Structures are given as structure tokens and as C-alpha cells.
Amino acid sequence: MEQATDQENPTETKNGIRLKLPEPGSFGRSVWLLGIIVVVLTLTCAALIYRLYPTIVELTHSSASLFHRDVQQKRSELESLLKRCDAALKALSQNEALLRYVQNPEESPTVGVEHPMQSHGSLESHVKTLYDLHEPHFRFLAFYDLRNDSLTSAGNVTEADLAAVRAFVQSQRSLWRPDVPRYVIHDATEHGFILAEPVYRYPRPAGLLLVRLRPTVLHQTLGLHDNSNATDFFGIANENGRVVHGPRDLAALHFHELIGRTAPLDSSWFHGVTKVRVGDEDIPAMYAFSRFNTWPVALIAMAPEEKYTGGYSSRIMIAAAMALPLSILLVSVAAAWTLREMKHVHNELKNARDVLDKQILQRTRDLEHKTAQLEGEVAERKRIQEELAASEQRYRAFVENATDIIYRTDPMGFFTFVNPVAARIMG
Question: Where does the chain cross the membrane (predicted)?
């Protein structure tokens, strides 16, 4: 029976050894089983990569969008900073031209630098120019010359206003002394508040600069009415913590006690004035001078005994004689305030840039770590696949080169003998 079976099954002689070939269908089933294992492992690896891919894409997109948003924000901040720098440079150029003209009125203005005094030389034109600069805040502006008792005015001034100004000048003339500058707000009920600034030519006052604020300024900006008492409205806290209320108290305050011996047009003189009292509220001096830009002359006391070139007590007195003290002071205040804001914005941009650099570095490290993990997993799956392929080749070679009988069948195809080792290998 065994001999008949051997004759029916095909045989092959290899290297002098007679081998019986297995049935064609059994080897195909083994290869199919190994193929299923390889496909399952490949699909598992692909599913893992597919699940991790959205995370990588999301991290990349979020980092890119955050970086783009930060770049746009920094770009807008830089554009705003450039605009502020241009405004500050323009204000500084204006201030320099005005100071040059005040110190040397005969000298021609700098070419390319425009200022209100460029084409005017008379006292009337100076008063008109100063009024035009502050027309939204002033009802009228007048300069009373004490040397010849003449009055030069600009704006919407009536006969009643002129009469009130003359009466005010006569009533206050006895209070002016060379050693005590006076800044007085006159309460004329029917004519509104009149702000008066004496203009000194050492050692005696040469004139008086008077302005009347518009009711809208008193109502909206200062919170006062025409018939209110402005004496107790303003106050200054000096570096010693002393609070001075009202212009009349401020008039008796010595110059160096308030702001030291610094030149008036130097922006550092603000360091001595820490706070300004407005009503019941203390606000920073720099903000107060910037906000109430029609009142700075009422908050500054000068020292007329300090002599400067030309016999004037200071450069600000020279500017006052030209009817331009307010303009020069406001330009200086605006320049100092703008430079301070520029420094603050620069520090904020620097801090934001440092934070952004740290975030970019941290997220770059996270992406590198994730990439390294994925590369390690891919390498591990590749190694497993290579081992499976090597095992398949080894098992196939073992079966193809086997020298023992793997199995026997009868003519009906039933197994009569199976090699235990081959059965264990084939599963």
C-alpha cells in the first residue's frame, strides 16, 4: 500500500536524494497564513501612524498660527511706535526752532522748519498766533503792556471783557512784586474765568498775559461752571509731600522748593512735581500737564531774581514777553511725555519678544521630541517586518529542503502519517 502511494505521488531527485513533494494546496495555505500575519502587522502600524498624524499636524498648525498672530501683533506695535517716533521728532524740531527764535528774534528761522513765529514779528501778530494755536480752549487772549498801559487782544473779545480786564489789571497791580511771582485766576461771574500770567523783565513786571477759557473747557474738561471758585480747584504735591492748593498759594511758593534749580525748559524739572490735585483726585503730574494743556502757567512759579541773557529772569520769561510761553511749554511737555511712552513701549516689546522666543524654542523642542518618537516606532515596525520576512524564508527553506517524510496519504487523500515536527511548524 505504501509502495502504491509513492508511485502515485510525484517525486524529485535532488543531490542524489529522492524527495517526495508535498501536495500543492498545503504549501499555499502556509504562505497565506503568513501573509495574513504580515498584513495585520502592517495595518496596525498604519493605524498607529494615522492616529498620530493629526496630532502632529495640529501641533504644527497651532504653532504656525500662534507665531503668525504674534508677528502681526508685533508688526502693528512697531508701526504705532514708528508713528510716535515721527511725532516726537516733529515736536522736538518745532521746539528747537521756537527756542532759537525766542533767544534770537532777529535770526532767520531754520529752512524747512515751520513754526508759528516764522512770518510774524509784531506784538499783535504774536498774540494772534498764540490765540490761533489754542482757539478751541480760549475765548480770547490779551497782552497788557504795563510800560505804556496798552492792551493787545485776539479772539472773540467784547467791550465788557476789555473793561473787566482793565479793572482786573488795576486791582492786581499793587500785588505784583519782583520777588514774588503771582498767578491769579480772576472770578468774573458774568465774564467767566480769566487766567493771568505776569511777564517779567527783570527786575519789574513788563506786562500781563490774560486768557479767558471757553465755558466748554470749564464744563467738560475741568468740571467747573463760570461762577465757580477756581481757587481751591488745583493743587500740587511737591517732592516733600507738601500739597499746595490753588494759584494764590502757589504764587508764594519759591521756585527751587517746587522744582529745584533745573532750567524750566528742561524736561527733567517734572521729576520734582509728583502729583497734581484736580478736585478731590490726585493724578500723576505728567498726565495732568498733558490733559489740562491750557493751564500749565497756573501751575508753575518762576524765580525772577535769576538773571539770564537779555535781562530776563529765564528763557520762559523771554518766551512770555513774545507772548509764546504756553506754546513752548506745551511742546516741551508733549516731547517729554512722548519719549517716556516710547521707552515704555520699547520695554514692552522687548519683554514680549523674549516670551515669544521662549515659546518658539519650547514648541520646537516638543516637535523634535515627537518626531524622534515616531521615527523610533517606524524603525521598530520595520525591524519586526524584516524579522517576519526572514522567518518566512527560513520556514519555507526548511520545508523545501526537508530530508524526512513530512506526511503520507492514501489514494483517497487521507493522511496516514504526519511528521510531528512539520506539523508543529506548519501549525
Answer: 31-53, 316-339
CA distances from 19 to 35, 217, 367, 408 (A): 27, 117, 59, 12
Are 316 and 255 in contact, with CB atoms under 8 Å apart?
no
Confirm if 422 and 402 have CB atoms less than 8 A apart: yes
Task: Tell me the per-residue pLDDT of 328-361, one tens digit each, with 9 for 90 and over.
Answer: 444 555 555 556 666 777 777 788 788 877 877 8
Domain that holds residue 301: 119-232+284-323
Render 314-331 in DSSP notation, one character per residue.
SHHHHHHHTT-HHHHHHH
User: Which of 279, 255, 282, 281 minimizes the C-alpha distance to 269?
Assistant: 255
Kindly state whether residue 96 falls inside one of the protein's structural domains.
Answer: yes
275 vs 80: which has the higher pLDDT: 80
Q: List the strands of the sheet with 275-278, edge to edge.
A: 243-245, 234-237, 275-278, 281-284
**Any long-range contacts for 408-414 (C-beta under 8 Å, 24+ apart)?**
408/2, 408/5, 409/5, 409/9, 409/23, 410/1, 410/5, 411/4, 411/5, 411/8
**C-beta of residue 374 within 8 angstroms of C-beta of residue 52:** yes
**Tens of pLDDT, residues 70-94:** 777 777 777 776 776 666 566 555 5
Average pLDDT over residues 227-249: 37
**3-state DSSP assignment of residue 405:** coil
User: Is the per-residue pLDDT at 378 higher than 80?
Assistant: yes
Cα angle 50-53-57, degrees, rounded to a multiple of 5: 150
The cell 513765529 sits on which residue? 117
CATH number at residue 134: 3.30.450
pLDDT on residue 148: 72
Distance (Å, whole) CA 41 – CA 382: 10
Q: Give yes or no: residues 146 and 219 share one domain.
A: yes
Average predicted confidence (pLDDT) for the chain: 58
Residue ending a domain, choose from 323, 349, 373: 323
The SS3 assignment for 241 reads coil
The domain total for the chain is 2
Joined together, the cell numbers standing for residue 243 give 500739597
Residues 38, 106: one domain? yes
Read off φ and ψ for residue 11, nearest 5 degrees: -130, 165
Give me the percent of the chain exceeding a pLDDT of 70: 34
Q: Grid coordinates standing for 244?
A: 499746595
Question: What residues does 150 pair with on adjacent strands?
Answer: 145
* Comparison of pLDDT for 278 and 218, the residue scoring more: 218
Q: What is the pLDDT of residue 214?
A: 66
Statement to judge: residues 97 and 38 lie in one domain: yes
Q: Which three cell numbers stand for residue 393?
A: 524564508
